[in-house]
Amino acid sequence: MRHSRSCDLNHLISLVEDVVEEVQTEELGNNLDDLLACTDRDPLYVYKSKKCYPRTVVWELTLACNMRCSHCGSSAGISRRDELSRDEMFGLCDELGELECERLTLLGGEPLVHPHWEEIALRLKEQDVRVNVITNGWMLDDPRFCDRIKNADLSIVGISIDGMEKSHDALRRRGSFKRLSRGIDLLRAREVPVAAVTVVTQDSLKEIDELYDFFIDKGVKVWQLQIAAPLGRLLPDDPLLIQPHQIQVIYDFLYKKKALKPGLTIDLADNIGYFPSGNNTYCRTTRRNNKNWIGCMAGIQVLGIDSNGDIKGCQSLPSIQRFIEGNVRVTPLKEIWNNPEGFSYNRRFSRKQLGGYCADCRYGSLCKAGCSSTAYAYTRSIGDNPMCIYRASREKAPDQNMNLGQLKKQGRKLIENNEYRRALRLYEHAISVNPQDWRVLDILGFLCYMTGSFEDAAEYCGRSLEIKPDNPYSLKGLGLCRVEMDRAQEGIALIQKAIEIDPEVFDAHFDLAVVYVKTKQYEKARQHFENALAIDPNRSREVNRALSQLERLNNPSS
Ligand code: SF4
Ligand code: SF4
């Protein structure tokens, strides 16, 4: 049952087993400001405060699946060519026991089509690992199969339900809603604990209240919500994907139901977050209060296993080279887990990994851009996550009634605070009010450059130059963009032209010097650093620091 990537089932498993009094509160405290102060001082604070072990593991038993869901994050259907053999899987169970794994979820594809799922579950139980399964529910229609599940003594059976009958079947397979619905009854009759897992899409969001009533009627005890992300069969422009501002709808729903104190616990997966504005601490579940998000735990307390033995920090991360830490056929799991170079994106996290809005976000050091898998799915960077309620609230469109002067004034303040993304939104609005304002175009060029959108920055500088062709500021800006776009010679020529027009601009000399350093033209770099110093001796500290770095580059032995 591969839904829109597995997104983690950690909370789901925890809740049902009633062990969710997360270490967070005990070990780290739960005051957000305190936590932030600690991670601002040391971005590895959370990692260092927690025991590092594969506490929660998700194991893709097979990629084979009896469905072809259109939102499947790993395009499941056919098994991998090189899936682990029964003996190799048994060896892995023992290794997981040695590493003190506490809970493990069997996942697919559809894990229940794997011929050895029961033996694997048993072997893991012998290692004191609590075992769960997440299934698409297709096979639960058969009482004898439900007997087998009962006998396997799984601590919970999670069933993917992505909407009411029509929308669920449209995504998955015709007839599947009816089958899983009967399956829930059969499992409950056998006293097997059942949870529901829903991928929130535009369709399921509309049916969220109906789904809630359905689960209450069915006696489901836990319901995990996670958002769909553009991986596998879901493309980035798929109309099923929800928009960032709709995360608020999910929170509103959670708060509303929490107030009702229902028998059904609703739990948010890691990819729904992260810091709803106005709430210092907030809930991620209807069951408890005040659980702050403390960053992705992949490779810290979470581990993912692909059916061919590839190991990742989390099963939700795509199976690509940069996330594969090793393969258990080649290297024992213990060695992979204990590799000092392994899982570096979390174990050696630095704020430099953050990009886009997350780079300037006040929560960045603690949040680490939320769910790495979701961030990657949207931006191909684990450090820039647009699916964030905090970001959505900050990036919301500026007040359309603000006049140009107010927009610029507010924009300047944001720039002073290094809040470039928010400033960008304001200035984009300002240029729509007056498209000929070359000063605004220059600032937009600067903001795009600072947020890493070099092509957009170049376009704004170009538009400014069409209005004011000899503007040294836009020439220099365009030049810097060209350098970033791997057109260094063109870039240098543009900055030189800016200097010809106005030789007395500190920044132009300084920036040109930096470009010369980048292109290893050290003598020219020195000359322009010195020119910059002559223009503004008050900035000698900055220039002298650059000059001594240049010296080191020039004479590495000195
Ligand atoms: S903007 Fe990024 S770093 Fe800030 S809370 Fe959202 S996901 Fe986390
Ligand atoms: S990638 Fe990190 S945040 Fe996302 S589901 Fe996995 S462990 Fe959780």
Write a structural description.
The chain is 48% helix and 9% strand. The protein is an alpha/beta fold and 558 residues long. Strands 7-6-5-4-3-2-1-8-9-10 form a 10-stranded mixed β-sheet, sandwiched between helices. Helix 24 packs antiparallel against helix 25. The N and C termini lie far apart (60 Å). Residues 1-8 and 10-26 have low confidence and may be disordered. The structure holds iron/sulfur cluster (2 copies). One iron/sulfur cluster (SF4) binds next to helix 17. Residues 7-8, 270-271, 296-298, 302, 314, 316-317, 371-373 line the site of one iron/sulfur cluster.
Short description:
By secondary structure, the chain is an alpha/beta fold. 48% of the residues lie in helices and 9% in strands. Mean pLDDT is 88; it is low at 1-8 and 10-26.
